[in-house]
Amino acid sequence: MSDPDWESALQLFNNKQKYTMAQKRSKQWYQSLFENYGRRYDHESFTQGTAGECDFLEREAGFNREVRILDIGCGTGRHTVEMAKRGYLVTGVDLSESMLAMAREKAALAGVTPEFLQGDARKLKFRHAFDMVTMLCEGAFPLMETDEMNFRILKNAARALVPGGKLIFTTLNGLFPLFNSTVDFFENNTGEEDAGYENIRFDLMTFRQFDTTIFTDDAGITRSLECSERFYIPSEINWMLRSLRFRTIGIYGARLGAFSRDHKLTAEDFEMLVIAEK
Predict the structure, then answer these.
(1) Helix (H) or strand (E) holding 252
(2) What pLDDT, in 10s, does the model give residues 17-31?
(3) What's the whole-model pTM score?
(4) How far is CA 269 from CA 33, 37, 152, 252, 265, in A?
(5) Which of 3.40.1010.20, 3.40.50.150, 3.40.50.1860, 3.40.50.720 would CATH assign to domain 34-177+226-277?
């Protein structure tokens, strides 16, 4: 190879290396969204059911305040802090340091001391440490870029449970977009305090929704992000949890602030509530 050819090959290699490093440094939409959005997030309409949702968690815990709870994707700590106020032993984990800062602030104001940890749900190392694991309001699952990443989150949640432990999470219901328009849903269910959604597209081949999310961050700056979330049908959820050796699995319709085993899942439910026991 002549010197010019060698220099060209070396330059091409260096460019590829720079591109790979840039990809590694680039943030996913959920990282960028929650960098400075905690205070605004707490005013979104879908965050207003905390008390009722914690009533449900208490029932599922049998009102046993010795139950150890891990809240994955705890965000600003709305469920973590509320359950701590009710006397439960709670650990909240989230990817976003800024959301955790708000959670710690809330806890201090409430006079409670749940444990808050910064961590990636795909890399959690807990083993048989908790009686209950929660992931509510799409906490981590199903925001990831691939099914493998989403499954890894479920696997880590399962590993964190003691034998007989319980996993409770909500996720997007794949039956909904088969029978309804997600565009109409967001047009009819977006409040004045909520982020806006444009260019909404549901891909039947991947069961992913793509959209442009427009929001105003806590500094008052209006931003837009290209986002993607995975909808799952009940049989997929059931298969994943069975493969993780959960003994019983219940899938129900998730209703804001009113979670219940009495709500049969239908195609009209945008989210589903999953309760699985080891």
Answers:
(1) strand 248-253
(2) 443 444 445 789 888
(3) 0.87
(4) 25, 27, 25, 9, 7
(5) 3.40.50.150
